[in-house]
Structures are given as C-alpha cells and as structure tokens.
Amino acid sequence: MTPVDTARARQTKKRTRIQEENEERILDAALEIFSSYGFRGATVDQIAQSAGMTKPNLLYYFRRKDDIYLAVLRRTLEDWLQPLEALGASDDPAEEIKAYIDRKLELSRENPKASRLYAMEIMQGAPVIGTVLNTRLKMLVDEKTSVITRWIAEGRLAPVDPYHLIFMIWATTQHYADFDVQVRAMLGDETADNGHFAIATRTLEDVFLKGLLPDR
Amino acid sequence: MTPVDTARARQTKKRTRIQEENEERILDAALEIFSSYGFRGATVDQIAQSAGMTKPNLLYYFRRKDDIYLAVLRRTLEDWLQPLEALGASDDPAEEIKAYIDRKLELSRENPKASRLYAMEIMQGAPVIGTVLNTRLKMLVDEKTSVITRWIAEGRLAPVDPYHLIFMIWATTQHYADFDVQVRAMLGDETADNGHFAIATRTLEDVFLKGLLPDR
DNA sequence: CAATTTCTTGACCATTCAGTCGACAGTTTT
DNA sequence: AAAACTGTCGACTGAATGGTCAAGAAATTG
C-alpha cells in the first residue's frame, strides 16, 4: 500500500519513520518553492530537488502537485490563524494590540516563506483556501472585531473601524516577510543580522498606539 | 522590419497606428495575467488570448516572454514611484502624510493589478527590477526619509523611524489591492461598490496621525 | 533469514509551453 | 493600382512538465 491515501493512513495505519521524515522534507521544500513561484510557477522537479529526492519518489508520497500544495498550505494556515485567535485574552487594549503586533512580526521574521505562500495564494484569488476565508477566518475576525468594538465603546480605544484596524496590523507586519527583499534594499547592510525587526517592532507599536502627531 | 527592435524603433522610426494599439492591448493583457500568476505561472498563450490575438501575432510585437514582462513592469513602476516623488511638497507633515495615504489608496483602488504585479515581482525576489530597487527607489526613499527626519527634528512629527514609517504606509495602502480577495471576504457584500475605500482612507489617516489610544 | 512490505528510481508518455517559419492578408506609399 | 511594407496566423519544433510504471533496493516483520 502506498502512503498516498493520507487521510486513511493517518487515521488507521501508523506512518513509518521514513514516511514521516520524507513528508516533512517534502513540505519544507514545497514551502520554499511554492512561496517564491506560486502554484503554477513551481515545478514538481524543483520541489523534489530541493527535498533531495527524485521526482517519482516525491510523487510516491504525494500523488499530484495539488496534493503537495494543499498540504503545505493547510499547515501554513494554522500558524497564520493562531496569533489572531489569541487576541483579546487579557482585556487590556493597548497591551493586546502590542502583543498581537509582536507575535505577527515574530512570525514574519521566523517564517517569512509561510507568509509569502499565504500572500501568493490570496493574490492569485485564493483558489484553494477561498472557502476557509469565507468561513473560519471570517468568523474569527468577526469575533475579534466585536471585542475591539467593545473596547471602543468603553472609551479605551479611539473610535476606528475594527476591520480596517485588523487589516492594518496584518499589512504592516506581513510586509516584513512578503516584501523582505525591498525592505533590505532600502535599509542596506544593517539588515544582515535582522536587527531591523527590533526597530520595526518599536515603530509599529508607537505609530499604532500614539500616532504620528507629536504629544499634544 | 519588424516592430520588435523596440529600442531602435522608438527612437528612429515612428510607430504605426496598429502597432500602438496592439502593444497597448498586449500590455493590458499582460498586466492581467502576470499579476495573477507571476512570471513563470503566466503563459504567452493566455496573454495572447486575453489580448484577443494569436500567440504568433503577439510574439511579432514582443519577441520573448521576458520582453513583455519587462515592458509591463517598467510601465507599472512609473505609476508606483510617482506618489512618493510628490511627498513633501507642501512642508506640512500631517497634510503630506494624509495626501500620500490618499494617493496610494487611490492607486490601489484604480489599478490593483499593477500593485499585485509589483508585489509578485518583489515576492519572487525582484529578479528583474532588483537593480531599480537598489538605485532609483533607494535614492528616492533616502531623500524622503531625510524630509521626515527634518520634520521630526522640528518637533512637528513624533519621533519614529522614517524608513519604517514609509513601509507602514506602503503596506497598509497596498494591502487593499494585493489582498483584495481577503478584504472583500472579511467585509462581505458591502464591498461591491468599493465603498470600503472611503472607510479605509479615514481609518488609515486616523490611526497614522492620532494613534489608537483615546484622547489624553 | 526468508517473506513481506515499503521505498527508490530510470525510462517512459502525453501534454503544454516558448518560440519559429513561411505563406498570405491588409495597409501604406509612390 | 503596383510596389513595398506591415500585420496575421496555421503548422510546426524542441524543451520542459506532470505524471506513470515496472523492476529492483532497502527496511520491516514473522
């Protein structure tokens, strides 16, 4: 039996050591390739090479290109949703927003490829995760916006549209992953050690919380 | 002589009416296709079809796929740089930043494909316009950051890192083009008439200038 | 250690793709 | 309207790509 019937295999059959290892390596390689070429621009051969195996061998684990893409996208999506799920736990608006910015920036630094994969998928019209957007993500966002709305009603946050506020945080934090090349081009060699992330964190927190106008 | 030696043609020979029209249609089609599939994911056939002509005919105007990509990217880049060039004309920090946000958001609404094309190129490591980033864009940004730095020194703007401030504006405004699908999924049907852009404008201006903390 | 299962790969196939070519149609110039 | 140039396209080519298959190598199990 091939390991390809992953659904069944995961539930009923235990996966072998080699299987575990290779699927891991394939997904890492797939993230690398898909995140920089998009689905159609990536080739199975490239992914196989990057994973250090032959193409037929890769296709032994994932029968079709679509399967690889779906698997790596699913895995990425979880990482992506997690920080938002945590938003609002402490009920201190300023601290919560700072913490959310920190977490998202951290993710952009630690796993920029995942961010780019997600961005690619969305920019191509979200053909694969479109339904997730409209169901799970939308519900989650609706939940969080109502928390923000409450904070505003309580006078603990300036009256801004909560949806667009979330977009702003997404955009600014993911920018450091998605536009990494541009960021480094603008900042020069000082980005070699990723030290710019500390400055980014401080700048984002300052602007989001205090704005650009000088103290009144 | 074919119209393909565009460099020479543009300088020495006048371009025919048909040439003008067709190259225009091709570039529009190319923007459409490249912006949603990236360079490698797009096919010449797709572009030709979208331009309403056959592939050999398209290749009569642009000999190679690379040439089409380069041409449409060059054209896009100009649009992209223009708003930044205008930044700082009036020497009123708050007004200038508002105006920049407005202009960039306008661009995201009017020409989201151009924004996505640019984003794709950057996300793929800027293989084609990498040098432009490191020369022309960097010089322009350096120039604008020093204006911002002056504003800060004069106490007319809160002390934030000017580079990261520019990144923030880029990120938040382009988000509405690049992540259009996601934005619409979150906001629901109300986005059918693009009315959300007005709210986005107000939210961005408010957060950037005044921040999220309620009036102190 | 023999049988069974899992893993690996070279050779292969059908399709798609970028790009060419020659013949012909349309347009402009004289 | 003839000549010269410009534009269009069907048919093609070679290379790349997604995917298959059979046969053997490696690991696991009895």
What does this structure look like?
The structure is a homodimer of 216-residue chains. Chain A has 216 residues and is mainly alpha-helical. Chain A has two domains: 6-63, Homeodomain-like (Arc Repressor Mutant, subunit A), CATH 1.10.10; 76-210, Orthogonal Bundle (Tetracycline Repressor, domain 2). Helix content of chain A is 75%, strand content 0%. Chain A has helices at residues 6-12, 17-41, 44-50, 55-61, 65-86, 93-110, 112-123, 130-153, 162-178, 180-187, 196-210. Chain A is globular and about 60 Å long. The termini of chain A are far apart. In chain A, 40% of the residues are buried. Mean pLDDT of chain A is 92; it is low at 4-12. Chains A and B meet through helix 2, helix 6, helix 7, helix 8 and helix 9 of A and helix 2, helix 6, helix 7, helix 8 and helix 9 of B. The first copy, chain A, binds a DNA duplex (30 and 30 nucleotides) through helix 2 and helix 4.
Concise synopsis of the structure shown:
Chain A contains eleven helices and no strands. By secondary structure, chain A is mainly alpha-helical. Chain A folds into two domains: 6-63, Homeodomain-like (Arc Repressor Mutant, subunit A, Orthogonal Bundle), CATH 1.10.10.60; 76-210, Tetracycline Repressor, domain 2.
